[in-house]
Write a structure and sequence with these properties.
Structural class: alpha+beta
Number of strands: 6
Low-confidence stretches: none
Number of helices: 10
Shape: elongated
Helix content: 55-70%
Strand content: 5-15%
Strand order of the largest sheet: 1-2-4-3
Length: 287
């Protein structure tokens, strides 16, 4: 969801610039800075932006620059007159002559020159600002789309890697069961003068091995992997759904690791977790 977009609208006497910046976020977190003349239109503009943006930590900045010097600035005559009156009174009290360059002196005082700012924007300015905002959001959307294409390849590659690792698990199943059986038999044999029911031992061994069976976890993880790829090909706006699927994948991988009881399978689980963490980091970047 990261991206940047900018658009400019030119009016006869004003230039309106809109910048839109987006970062990752689970929800839509929209902040907007507008000039005072557009303050009464901020709610409408915010709603229009939210309709298009959907998700992300988004910041919208709107600037209005006057291109007419005559209309942009004006002299604050009442304040200048007040300054001159006070200087005249000061000169009379201190007995000093009046300044030779009144203009330079008076214009140095604060607020003697002020910008002419309208109370609110007219319809033309508002429509221009709204159009510029839509174009900036469109530029942001294009930036997001380009990033989305890269993410699609990123996710596809990592899902395939996890699938390949998952396919390696069955080759260790027979070896794993035999090691468990052999270890339990060796432990019993190491205890001197112990008589035990071999039939009961086989029952307990079968029960123990069933508890460590990972077939269901493998099947569910495989289903989640396929579902993730299917969701990638769905309509936009599936980011939250992909996040939920990634969570379910994590649960199955963790269970697989806790049941594996085999060094090679543990290594596979660690590698799958590494790939999944990369997916979880980047899935926040999907709308």
């Amino acid at each position: 969801m990261t991206g940047f977009g900018k658009a400019v609208a030119e009016l006869p006497s004003k230039k309106i610039s809109v910048e839109v910046k987006s970062l990752n976020s689970k929800q839509l977190d929209l902040s907007m800075r507008v000039p005072a003349v557009l303050r009464d239109k901020e709610i409408e503009m915010r709603a229009a932006a939210a309709h298009k943006l959907e998700r992300g930590k988004v910041e919208i900045n709107i600037y209005i620059d006057s291109q007419s010097a005559e209309q942009a600035m004006t002299l604050n005559l009442p304040l200048i007159q007040a300054y001159k009156k006070q200087i005249d009174e000061l000169g009379a009290q201190l007995g000093i002559p009046a300044p030779t360059d009144w203009y330079t002196l008076l214009l140095r005082f604060p607020d003697t020159v002020k910008a002419v700012v309208a109370d609110h924007a007219d319809d033309t300015e508002y429509e221009a600002a709204l159009d510029a905002m839509h174009r900036a959001i469109e530029a942001l959307t294009q930036h997001r789309a380009a990033e989305g294409a890269r993410l699609y390849d990123f996710f596809t590659e990592r899902i395939h890697r996890i699938s390949e690792m998952l396919a390696q698990v069955p080759r260790y199943e027979v070896e794993r069961v035999e090691k468990i059986r052999s270890r339990m038999a060796d432990n019993l044999a190491s205890i001197p003068q112990v008589d035990y029911d071999r039939g009961r031992l086989e029952q307990e061994l079968i029960f123990y091995i069933e508890k460590l069976d990972v077939n269901e976890e493998r099947q569910r993880l495989g289903q989640h992997l396929r579902y993730f790829l299917e969701t990638l090909d769905c309509e936009p706006g599936q980011g939250k759904k992909l996040g939920f699927i990634a969570q379910e994948m994590g649960r199955e991988i963790n269970t697989l690791g806790s049941k594996s009881n085999h060094a090679e399978m543990q290594r596979i689980v660690v590698k799958m977790k590494d790939e999944l963490e990369q997916i979880k980091e980047q899935v926040l970047n999907v709308l």
